[in-house]
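Example S7 (structure tokens).
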């Protein structure tokens, strides 16, 4: 299996790369800074610039994960533009190559997020649900529309990975929360009733590999296109997550951060913390994908 990957140096990209290499796949990372990124790439991974892609190259699959982190800082106008550009520019570069490639990859798995659905309270949302129009939706929707052109214009099946909050102590949200919770300073955000759709890192990597195999001749059944929710079966509220994470660290979590304080400190970005989506992985579940970390408590016990 030959896989080309954007965003390979990120939290998700590194985890997926490790799994692919362990399975004997040939992996290449694409980057706008190949010299710098190449210094930290695992052995066996080639790192190239987008402009290096040639029409006569043959890759079995493309996984497109490039994009600046959405929750790292306030959403100024400049930050919003960066979030958009960091997703659209790599995707456009891939599309340009796919349009002229003489041997098309068999699938493009392209990143997205459960933010596509926007804030819809406690409504249960699957891949057929609609959306609430807000910045997170607009960001995901523009990214998805551009990626979808690979199927419409280049004939390459596209799977849109609507990923929830990915949990593992080595990175992502848990890495940011570890210190305050270990100091006993963790607490619910706002009312704590907002839902969080999460997935264990191991299950996210396994699900992506499962989707790849569906297109590359594996035994998992029909190849898909369109959106797939990469979330666990049981979304939790912020209050439930706070209690479970504190308990996993054997620390108290009695504090609360009032919603007005978050809005004052984070501006519009506070919606990521105070609003939520109750998203379920209907397509994965219906197709028989098996989650190893079905409960939040199991996910919080991950060490590998």
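Recovered sequence:
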């Amino acid at each position: 299996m030959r896989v080309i990957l954007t965003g390979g140096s990120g939290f998700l990209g590194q985890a997926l790369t490790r799994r692919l290499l362990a399975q004997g796949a040939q992996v290449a990372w694409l980057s706008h800074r190949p010299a710098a990124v190449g210094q930290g790439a695992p052995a066996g991974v080639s790192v190239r610039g987008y402009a290096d892609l040639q029409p006569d190259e043959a890759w079995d699959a493309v996984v497109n994960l490039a994009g600046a982190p959405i929750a790292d800082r306030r959403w100024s106008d400049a930050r919003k533009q960066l979030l958009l550009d960091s997703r659209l520019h790599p995707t456009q570069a891939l599309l340009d190559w796919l349009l002229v490639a003489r041997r098309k990859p068999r699938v493009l798995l392209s990143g997205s997020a459960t933010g596509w659905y926007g804030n819809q309270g406690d409504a249960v949302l699957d891949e057929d649900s609609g959306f609430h129009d807000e910045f997170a939706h607009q960001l995901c929707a523009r990214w998805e529309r551009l990626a979808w052109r690979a199927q419409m214009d280049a004939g390459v099946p596209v799977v849109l990975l609507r990923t929830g909050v990915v949990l593992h102590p080595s990175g992502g949200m848990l890495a940011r929360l570890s210190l305050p919770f270990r100091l006993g300073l963790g607490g619910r955000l706002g009312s704590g009733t907002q839902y969080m759709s999460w997935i264990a890192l191991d299950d996210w990597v396994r699900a992506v590999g499962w989707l790849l195999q569906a297109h590359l001749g594996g035994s998992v059944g029909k190849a898909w296109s369109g959106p797939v929710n990469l979330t666990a079966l049981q979304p939790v509220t912020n209050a439930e997550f706070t209690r479970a994470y504190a308990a996993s660290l054997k620390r108290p979590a009695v504090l609360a951060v009032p919603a007005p304080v978050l809005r004052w400190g984070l501006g519009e970005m506070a919606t990521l913390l105070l609003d939520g989506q109750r998203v379920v992985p209907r397509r994965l579940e219906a197709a028989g994908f098996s989650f190893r970390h079905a409960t939040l408590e199991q996910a919080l016990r991950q060490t590998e």
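Notes on this example. The mean pLDDT is 93.
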